[in-house]
Every structure is written in C-alpha cells, then in structure tokens.
Amino acid sequence: MRRAVIAFTAFLGGLVFLLSSPAWADGEALKGTLQNQGQPVNGVKISVAGEDGKPVGDATTGSDGKWEVPVPEAGTYKVTLDQSTLPQGVGLKFKDRATLNVQVYEGSERNVLFALAPAGQQGGGAAQSSSDSSSFWDRVAQLTFEGFNLGLIIALAAMGLSLVFGTTGLTNFAHGELLTFGAMCAYFFNVVLGIPLVLAAVISVVIGGVFGYTQDRFFWGVLRKRGSSLVAMMIISIGLALFLRYVFLFFFGGEGAPFADYNAQPGIQVGPISAAPKNFIAMGIELAVLVIVGLALLKTRVGKAARAVADNPALAASSGINVDGVIRIIWTVGGAVASLAGVMLGLSQNVSYQMGFQILLLVFAGVTLGGLGTAFGALVGSIVVGLFIQLSTVVVPTELKTVGALLVLILVMLFRPQGILGRRERIG
C-alpha cells in the first residue's frame, strides 16, 4: 500500500509540473534576459544574423533586461551582443563570447545567455594573465556571497513550510504561492498605489500573515476536523497551488515586472565582493527575521507549545495546550515570513506569477536536507542549497546549477535520510 501511495504521488507530482509548465511557442524566436549581479541591464543592443551573415533582426533590452527577436524558421543563428551599449562598469564575463551560435528548433523559443560581470572581473579568451588565480578566488568569494543571499531567501520560505509540516504533517505544495502572493501585494502597494517599498513590504507581510491564518481557519483546519488524510490534503494543496497560480496570472499577467524602488542601484565594492546596497540590507533583514523566529521558538511559551505539538499533538492536547490555536499561529507566522521571502525574491529579480513555483523545489530541498519539521534544519539546509547552487557554476554551466543542488540532496538522503539536523525515527 505504501509503495502504491508513493508511486501515485510521484506520478501526480510529475503530471502537475508538466501541466503547469509554459505552453509551447507558436513560432520560432530567440530571447533572453540580461542581468548583472541579479539586476536587469537596460538599453543593450542584441543583433541576430543567419549562418550566412545576413541580418535577421535586432532588439534592445528593456527595463526588465529582457529582449526577443523572432526568426523566420528553424536553424542556426549568430547572436551578437553590442558591447559598446553596455552600461559603464559592466562587461562580458568572457570577452570572446560576444557572438554565440544558437540552434533554434521548429516551434520553439530559444533562450540565449550572455554572462555579465562588473568591470575588472571579466575573464579572457585563450590568453590568460598571471592574475587568473586571483580572479578565480574573487569569483568564488562573489559566488559565496550570492549563495548566502539566495540561501537566506530560501530559508525564509523553508522555515514556514517546515513549521507547518512539523505541527500538522502536511506537505504543502501551495507554499510557493504564499511567496508570490506576498511579492504581488508589495508590487500593488508600491507600483500601483505609489507607496514606498519599505512600507509596502510591511503591509505585505501583515496581509501574508492574515492570509496564512485564513487558510487554516477556513480551509485546512476544516479538513483536519473532518479527518482528511495527509495524502488527500497534499493532493488538495497541489490543486490549490494551480488555482492560485492561474489567479495570479489572470490579474498580474504573464510578464515579470520590477518594483518601482531600488532598481539599477550602482554596486559597491567590499573586498572582492561587488553588490548593490539593497542586497546587503536585504540580507541583514533576512538574518534578523530568522534569528527572531528561531529565538521565539526556543524562548516563548508559544514557541515551546509549537515544539510540543510537533513532537506529540495528542500529548500536547492532554497537557492543556490548544493544538488548533498553536497551529493557527504557525500558519500566521509561516504566511508572514513567506510573504517577506517573496518581497526579497522580487527585489533580487522581477515579480512574476511563477516566482514562487520556480523556487518551491529549492525550498523543499532545503527543508528535506536540513530535516523535515525542524526550523533550524530548514535554515541550515537552505544555506547549503543556496551556496551549492551558486558555487557549482564554477565548474558546471549556469543552466545546470539547480541540478547540482538536487544531486547533493539525493546523496545526503542516501546516507542520512533524516536530514542534517533531523532525528532518526523507527519505522515499522
């Protein structure tokens, strides 16, 4: 029976991921997004020519860093980035890759990646200078910083997911939509209503907490009282995720958009690390929130009650703990922290209807790697995932960096199934 449930769940999960993936394009095109240290690069000219050198078309990146050039048919095309149009202080990471040969298949849109880097951090072609070793370690330092930044965002999302699992046993596939909801709330208040982003983020966190409470009060709590199985509730969460995702698509649209504030900030140099000021501030906020939530779990009565419910709900209830009330508080905190994670993710990239779904797999990886149901395990696992994703690009193509993180997850699960900070349990 257990094998049948696992097989059915795996099949359903794969089906959902296929159904929720973008539809095939009607025509052929080349497109891409230019980013420098996570920030879109505007006003860069991209030209496309056929194999014979005949021009096909050109485009200029917009405020979101995106560009697209339709092509007449499937085939191989030469895509050239005009380096003279790059903003000051930004250059190609590899100067000999200003022109790329790209194969476009029938009915598909092909993404083209140009790696950018701050001036002075570019690599050369065949010729190497004596400073290559120094450049390599500078790059490692930069990727480590970016890995911590990504890991802290994942940790914010993973902490709420892990707490919900620990207290209810629910594997919530709709948790990614809580991130999207928070980012879109902040976008609405910041861009549409013109409220400063800091205040918009605070409002978004409050609304996210209310949304989390409402979900459990009128939906998940009702299902628990009716005795719904965890497998049934997990499947319902998949349906809820799809529903919310396409609601976001309907109201927000399919294109990503940035916040109105803190766009295109000039980078500051701290040793070998170069980043926008907002990245340092965001990391400080993320660390502070994670520490506060962690201390609340350890020191407050509600935190101790939450840990008691996670250990043994029946014993906690017999001890006088209001289990439903504790679970509702966990959902409220989880929704608020997930909304903050969505705002931080939207600050480092554009807000889009799929942003939560796209990071959900990494959130699950962080939770599972650290130990299911443990808040501090989710933090440790998320940091490991973020670091490995970024540092793996030293040896593997950028397109495969997520695959490497999942490979680490598989290896850890083979040798330590309970995760890094999880406790070994007896089965059977």
TrEMBL record:
One of its GO terms (molecular function) is L-valine transmembrane transporter activity. GO terms for biological process: D-alanine transmembrane transport; L-alanine transport; L-isoleucine import across plasma membrane. Its main location: membrane. PANTHER family: BRANCHED-CHAIN AMINO ACID TRANSPORT SYSTEM PERMEASE PROTEIN LIVH (PTHR11795), HIGH-AFFINITY BRANCHED-CHAIN AMINO ACID TRANSPORT SYSTEM PERMEASE PROTEIN LIVH (PTHR11795:SF371). Residues 1-25 form the signal peptide. Belongs to the binding-protein-dependent transport system permease family. LivHM subfamily. It is found in: Cell membrane. It holds the Pfam family BPD_transp_2. One of its GO terms (cellular component) is plasma membrane. It is a multi-pass membrane protein. Keywords: Amino-acid transport, Cell inner membrane, Cell membrane, Membrane, Signal, Transmembrane, Transmembrane helix, Transport. Residues 47-67 are annotated as: Disordered. The chain crosses the membrane at residues 150-174, 186-211, 231-252, 280-298, 329-347, 359-389, 395-415. The keyword Cell inner membrane applies. This is Amino acid/amide ABC transporter membrane protein 1, HAAT family. InterPro entries: ABC_transp_permease (IPR001851), BCAA_transport_permease (IPR052157).
